[in-house]
Amino acid sequence: MQRYVLQSTLDQLLDEFGAISSPHQTLKSNFNAAPGHLMPIVYKSNDQLMMDFAVWDATQPTISIDDASQKTHMHFTEDPCIVPISGFYIWKETVNDPLPFFVRIHSQPILAIAAFLTKKGEFRNSFAVLTQSANVLIQPVEQQMPAILAPNQHNGWLIDETNNLIQSGFTHNTMIPDMTVFRVPDLVNDLSNNGPELLQPIPKLRDED
User: What distances in angstroms separate CA 161 from CA 80, 89, 151, 152, 164, one per listed residue?
Assistant: First the structure.
């Protein structure tokens, strides 16, 4: 996952995950979230689900399930977290510019992406997204996709089922009937663009689409 969208209010996220946050925190929708951006995460602290903000690790923004299962990257802590998203972008490589597509699950306005907190000195204020092999809808465009947690897996991922889920894989194939992939404007390619117009579905414009 290279970029994603989070279109939500803070209260909506807190309700979705049953989490609490500091009273002074606010949230603005981000239609072009990229590594290096400060984004909300959910994690477990003292038997309570908390929502806070962390930087999407620009050094290594993703970690594959294979690497996580073998604990290849000691850069990562064993502290799981959840990254809330509305959907994510993928790019189809062509002889010209890559073509952006948006992926969402229309039955779930907010998706929970499995992730790990990462170490920055003694602080744990950044995260890396867990990725897995893409399902049949996404494979024609990209080989990897984020590990999406089903609603009944949220607590297990954060509390005591982290290793089991990594070993058994995530049930992304069961989400295919509700998953939509569609072309979006090339405006997505420029990080300075960040608005709802990035999600406007567009018709086939080029032979490569």
Answer: 10, 28, 14, 12, 5
* Location of structure tokens 């399930």: 65
- Per-position pLDDT tens, the chain of length 209: 999 999 999 999 999 999 999 888 889 999 999 999 999 999 988 888 999 999 999 988 998 888 887 764 445 556 899 999 999 999 987 757 788 999 999 888 999 999 998 766 555 589 999 999 888 889 888 889 999 998 888 988 998 778 888 887 776 666 788 899 999 999 999 999 999 999 999 876 555 55
The per-type count for the chain, helices as H runs and strands as E runs, is 4, 13
CATH topology of domain 3-199: hypothetical protein yedk fold (3.90.1680)
Domain range summary for the chain, segments of one domain joined by +: 3-199
Give per-residue burial for 119-132: e unless 16+ CB within 10 Å, then b. beeeebbbbbbbbb
Q: Is residue 41 within 8 Å of residue 13, measured between CB atoms?
A: no
Distance CA 115, CA 158 (A): 10
The pTM for the full model equals: 0.89
- With 0-12 / 13-18 / 19 or more C-beta atoms within 10 angstroms meaning exposed / middle / buried, residue 140 is exposed
